[in-house]
């Protein structure tokens, strides 16, 4: 799919991370309060949080839709919608007042916040019986992109009085589109597919395939408010950092990282704070990815989840959402919501254990470790804030304020 100049401009660096805990092997966060959306397995597939961080829509089997208060999920309700299709993805419009929910059988539903109502957007008329697997709005909310099985991608938007305006995206692949994510400040989005790799949709709705062909990409997110970069994951523990070249989309870069010694498979990714994401893993565990540092860190070990509650640890994580930089809630397929928060410093020696030990194809270990530890002011500040003394942390904060004023 990549030929000529596109291939020559593509930079794909494959990094293998061997995980050596240098601070603690314990989890960085601990599980807390439990909320259950139902008494039976609900078969949920995911959830999306509103731009203001106040409400969450969870969705899944049998067209089940739940409206949840993000900070207090004890306040939740099932929204009435009588159908049988599984709802596979959802995304809020940047304005936060509506959301699209997509799923099997070409279904596209529209959630309206003002009256907490769900209605059909007429998806079957445009998409037939295509299984719709991903949806995401672009930065200014002018268009949403919907992806489905067999490589289908459309740009869509609602019309006054109901219905949709729909246009297929040209140059699509042939494998399932499993994830779409859009930058927060520029009308550019990435798509992740089962086989065809990773593509970038530019502001003119043109699709550019930029790399990662052959990897089973399953989800994507663009967690940074200011950096033109996104993150995609595959179910076989690969993380792709997609650096988008806004001026020349076809020159965008993909860096692929595989995490070793991770038990289980990646199941999804969600933004946690600016530039940081949570990868949820089956069996029940989580990994933090820091886009700015281009590094991954332990978040929740499965052993700690089992110690907390063996039954919950056996459930499939399908979504997380943040309530602060290090706190939030995790949702499972059966409908169990569990709070998470940082483990006290006196139990871990620091907020996060650090997984490093980096081997980069084509580079020497010593060079890379030197680069990471000695030559990165950002990483140096990060380490100081995580494991330094109180005085060292104060000095790091003062230094950051001085840099911000320049």
Automatic annotation (TrEMBL):
Gene3D superfamilies: YVTN repeat-like/Quinoprotein amine dehydrogenase
Assigned keywords, A-Z: Membrane, Transmembrane, Transmembrane helix
TM region(s), chain numbering: 352-373
InterPro entries: Quino_amine_DH_bsu (IPR011044), WD40/YVTN_repeat-like_dom_sf (IPR015943)
Annotated protein name in UniProt: WD40 repeat domain-containing protein
Organism of derivation: marine metagenome
